[in-house]
Structure prediction request, 855 residues.
Amino acid sequence: MPDLTINCGGISSPNPFWLASAPPANSGEQVQRAFDHGWGGAVWKTLGQPIQNVSSRFGAIDWQGRSGVGFNNIELITDRSLDVNFREIYETKRKYPKHALIASLMVETREEWKEIIKRAEDAGADGLELNFGCPHGMCERGMGSAVGQEPAVNERITSWAKEFANVPVLVKLTPNVGDIVPHGLAAQRGGADGVSLINTIKSIIGVDIDTFVPKPMVGNRSSNGGYCGAAVRPIALHMVAALARDRQFNIPISGIGGITNWRDATEFMLLGSSSVQVCTEVMLKGYRIVEDMIEGMEGWMRDHDFQTTDQFIGKSIPHYADWGDLDINFETVAKINAETCIGCQVCVVACHDGAHQCIHPAEVGRIPVVDESECVGCNLCQIVCPVEGCITMEEVENGFAPTTWNEHLNEGKPVRPKKGAH
Amino acid sequence: MDELDPERSEQVFEDFKKAYTANQAIVEANRCLYCSDAPCITACPTGIDIPSFIRKISTRNTEGSARTIFASNILGMSCSRVCPVETLCVGDCVFNEMGVPPIQIGKLQRYATDMAFEKDWTFFEAGADTGKSVGIVGGGPAGLAAAHRLRRFGHAVTIYEKRDILGGLNTFGVAPYKMRADAALSEVEWVMSIGGITVEHGVTIPETYSWDDLLGKHEAIFLAFGLGPDTRLELPGSNLDGIVGAVDFIEDFKLKAMDLSAVKQAVVIGGGNTALDAVRELRGLGVPEVTLAYRGAEDQMGGYAHEWSAGKDEGVISAFNLQPVAYEGQGQVDGLRVVRTDADKKPIPGSAHTLPAQLVVLAVGQSKLGELVSDLDGVETKWGRVVTTESGQTGHPRVFAGGDCTNGGKEVVNGVAEGRDAAIAIHSMISEA
Ligand SMILES: Cc1cc2nc3c(=O)[nH]c(=O)nc-3n(C[C@H](O)[C@H](O)[C@H](O)COP(=O)(O)OP(=O)(O)OC[C@H]3O[C@@H](n4cnc5c(N)ncnc54)[C@H](O)[C@@H]3O)c2cc1C
Ligand SMILES: Cc1cc2nc3c(=O)[nH]c(=O)nc-3n(C[C@H](O)[C@H](O)[C@H](O)COP(=O)(O)O)c2cc1C
Ligand code: SF4
Prediction:
C-alpha cells in the first residue's frame, strides 16, 4: 500500500489533501466532518478582527451547462468571534491529533500579530498560514494582497511572525502580481517555513445585462472579487512551478487553485507542491470527493511504483524549461485512427479555420485525411476530437539532430525547415 | 465444480446491451450530477453509492469505482447486467424528471466491474478466524452474498448446494442475452476467492443432513434455497411430450445443448418476466413462430414493459385474453387448445380454437419450498415463504433466511442485499454469544 503521508514545511498529515482557508473550513463541526471523510488537513478560515460580510457574495461562470467552472467571491475573513474559533480549533485538534490543523491569520500591527499567534498556538494549531493574498476588501484596509504585493512588507511581517511563532509558518501568496518569484523569495527571506499559493485572482465574474449591475449583486452595486475554481488551475500550476524551479527558492510549497480531483492534485505535486489545498470543488461537491482523491492517488502511485509521496513531488520540474531550451527540431504530426474515428469532422474545421489547413475531408466516407507534409504538429485537432485516443501526435524522423533555439543562435546548429508557413 | 458444457445452446446469444468502451463510459460518467442523497442509491436494493462510483469512473479511478460497487454488492458485475435497472436505479435518476435521458448506471457499473475482473483487482480479505461457523443452504445469490460477508467477519462458512454448480438462478436462470453462465461463474469464482468457503455439492437439505445435524454443526444457519419447480397446468393431455416448465427449459438450454430443429411453433403460457424471457429465448434459439399466450390483456401482464417491447421487436406473436383448456397431440404435443375470455376473464362460448405448437412452455410461476422447514422448530412460513424479521431472522433464533425463499421471488440484487444483511445480523448475534 503506497504511503500518502506528507510533510510540508514541518507540518505533517496523513495525506496531502487539505481544505483551503475558506468556507469549508469555517468551523469545528465542518472541519471534523471533513476529517471523518478523509481530508488530511485543514487551513482554518482566516482569523483576524471579525468582519461583517455582504449579501450576496459569490458568482460563477458556467461551461457547457455546468455551473462553477470558474468561481468568484467577495467574502472577507471570518465573521465569527475569535474566542469561538479558537475554542473549536482546540477541540478539533484534541479529537484529531494526527491531522494537520493550520490557523490562517490576518491582522495589521506587530502587537496584533504577536497576540493572535500566541492564541493560535495555545489552541493547538500545528502551523500558521499568513494570509497575504485576499484581493478584495481586506486589501482596501491595508491587509491581504496589499501586503502580498509588496515584497518588503511581506518580508517584514513574515519575520515578525517567525519571531513570535514556535510552530511552522506558511505564507499564502497572492497571484495578483506580474512575477511570483520575488514574492516567494521575500517570504523565504522573512524566514517562512513554506509558502501556499495561489489565493484568488482579482476578477469581475460577470454583469447582469438587464439591471447593468455587475455580479455578485449587492443591492445596485458590486465589487471586484477573487477568482478561483477549475478555471484558475493553469495559472496556479505555473506559479507553483515558477517557484519550484527557481534556484534561490528552496522552501516547501502548498499548492492551491482549481484542484477538483486526484489527477489535478497529482499535477500540483509533480510541479513541486508538498501538500495541496482545495476550496471551490468542496464548496460545489462536498467533502465526499476526498475518497476518490485518496484512492486515485494511491492507485496512480502503485501504477508508477512510488511508495512515498517524496518520490514524485517535483518530478516534473526537470521537464519544465525555458522556450529557448526546447528542441526545435522535434517534430510530430497528427494521425487519425480510422477504427475509432466517428466522422464528426470537428478536426477538419478546427484545422482549416484555426490552424494550418492540413486536415481534409476524405473523398469517400467521413474519415478525414491529414496532409502530413503540411501538419505543424500543433495538437489542435487532438484537443477538439471527442474520441479519446483517436488522434495521436506521432513523432516523425526528419534527419535533423536535436537543437534548441538558443543553441541555434549561439552555436549556429542547423534548424529544420518551417512547415505550414506558406 | 464441473466445467460448463462447451456445446451448450446459450452460446448463440449475444449481449442485448453492449458494453461501454472507455470513451463512452467517461462521456456518460461526466453527465452524472453527483446528486447528494441520490435517489438512485435508495432505488438500489443493495444501496450502492452510485454517484461516487460514477465520479470515480470520470476521474479514471476505475479501481476505486469497482471497490465502491463491490463493497455494497458482491455480485455487482452480474447485477450490472441482469438488474432491471429501468425500474430500479436508472428509473429513479433525477434526469427523468428533467425529460433528459437518465444516466446509464447499469452500463457504467458493468464497465467498472468488468475491468475489475480483467485486471484481477481484489478488494476484500477474510477476517481473522473467529472459531465460529455458519451453514448456508443454497449457493445462489443470497447464499453467496451471505457467505462472503461472513468470511469478511472471519466466520467459517459451509454452503450446502444440491446442484453441482453455484450461483443459483443467476447462473442457470437469467436470460443469456443479459448474461451467460460462464460470466456468472466467473463472478462466483471471485466471490469464492476470499477463501475459507467450503461447498458441499449434491446435498439436499433436509434429506442429506437434517436440520438438527446443521444446528449441531454450526452456530447459525442461513436459508437461501430459493423457489421450487415450475407450476404445472393440469389439463387433458398433460402427459404428452413437449410440455415443459419454463425454468427447467431455461436451465436446460443454458447448461446443455438443445435441439429445437423440430419446433416450428412454440407457445409460452404466462405474462410474467419468466414468460417474457422464454419467448425471446425461443426466438433467439431459432424457433420461427413463438406465441405468448396470456389470460389477461396486454396491460395486465406482470412482466416489465421494456422486456415485452423488446420481445415484440424480435417478432414474438401475442395472444391475449386466452384460457388454455387442453393440450392436443399423439404422444408428442402438437397444439394448445384455448378459449377466449371476456373482460371478467370468463370464457366466451364458441371461441375455442387451437394454437399449433410442437413445444409448450409453462411460465405460470414457481412453487414455494416452505415445506422444507416444516420440522424446523419455530420457523414460520406464509404462502410457502419463510417468514423473517427485517434483519432476516426467523422464529428460530439461530436460523436466518433471505432471497427468493423469503421474498417470494424478486431479483438477484434483492437476494444479494438480503444475504448480506442477514450475514451482518448473524455476525452480531454469534459475536455476542
Ligand atoms: C427464468 C428466470 C429469469 C430471471 N431473470 C432475472 C434477471 O434478469 N434479473 C434478476 O435480477 N433476477 C432474475 N431472476 C430472479 C433471480 O434469479 C432470483 O431472484 C435470484 O437468483 C434469487 O436468489 P436466491 O439465492 O434466493 O435463490 P436461487 O438463485 O434460486 O438459488 C437457490 C439455490 O439453492 C439450491 N437449493 C434449492 N433447494 C435446496 C435444498 N433443499 N438443499 C440444498 N440446496 C438447495 C438451488 O440449487 C440453488 O442453487 C430470474 C429468475 C428466473 C426464474
Ligand atoms: C468564498 C471564498 C472565501 C475564501 N476565503 C479565504 C480566506 O478567508 N482566507 C484565505 O486565505 N483564502 C480564502 N479563499 C481562497 C481559497 O482559500 C483558495 O486560495 C482559492 O479559492 C483557490 O483555491 P480553489 O480554486 O480550490 O478554490 C476563499 C475563497 C473563496 C471561494
Ligand atoms: S445493483 Fe442493480 S439496481 Fe443497484 S445500482 Fe447496480 S444495476 Fe442499479
Remarks:
- Residues B 82-83, 137-143, 160-163, 168-170, 173-175, 178, 203-205, 224-227, 247, 250, 274, 277, 372, 403-405, 410-413, 415 surround flavin-adenine dinucleotide (ligand 1) (CB under 6 Å).
